[in-house]
TrEMBL record:
A Pfam family the protein falls into: START_2
Name recorded for this polypeptide: START-like domain-containing protein
Domain START-like: 1-126
Domain of life: Bacteria
Coiled-coil segments on the chain, per record: none
Length: 128
């Protein structure tokens, strides 16, 4: 299996960090923009898209700041995705920082997927 490449994206968002955190850290929030449906039992999250299901473990979270999930795959890969809320100390502008991994030939596709997902989030928040 090829090594995956880490990439990071930044999305300016007009919403309070507290509100954003609800959308990135709770099953009900995530199911409004990230997947068709999201269920959780403790640290285990089930993401459902068009009948396909993926499971991820909530590896770490910091209230109001970030969440980090690791996909549960058959192998023991070190890959994860992290969504972080960043507030500029001077301007108070809020951005979502996304860190994820993809195969070298799939990085552009993965970035486009995130852009679409965050666009959905902005619509839900009314900040599009």
């Amino acid at each position: 299996m090829d090594e995956k490449i880490k990439f990071e994206l930044e999305f300016p968002i007009h919403a309070s960090p507290q509100l954003l955190y609800q959308y990135i850290s709770t099953p009900s929030g995530l199911s409004e923009w990230f997947a068709d449906n999201v269920n959780s039992r403790g640290e285990l999250f089930r993401f459902i898209w068009d009948g396909a299901e993926e499971q991820a473990k909530l590896v770490s979270k910091k209230s109001g700041e970030r969440v980090k999930f690791k996909w549960l795959t058959d192998d023991d890969e070190p890959y994860y995705f992290e969504i972080r809320i960043q507030v500029d100390e001077i301007t108070k502008d809020v951005s979502l920082m996304v860190a994820d991994f993809a195969e070298e030939d799939e990085v552009d596709e993965a970035k486009m997927l995130w852009e679409n997902q965050i666009s959905d989030l902005k619509q839900v928040l009314g900040s599009a």
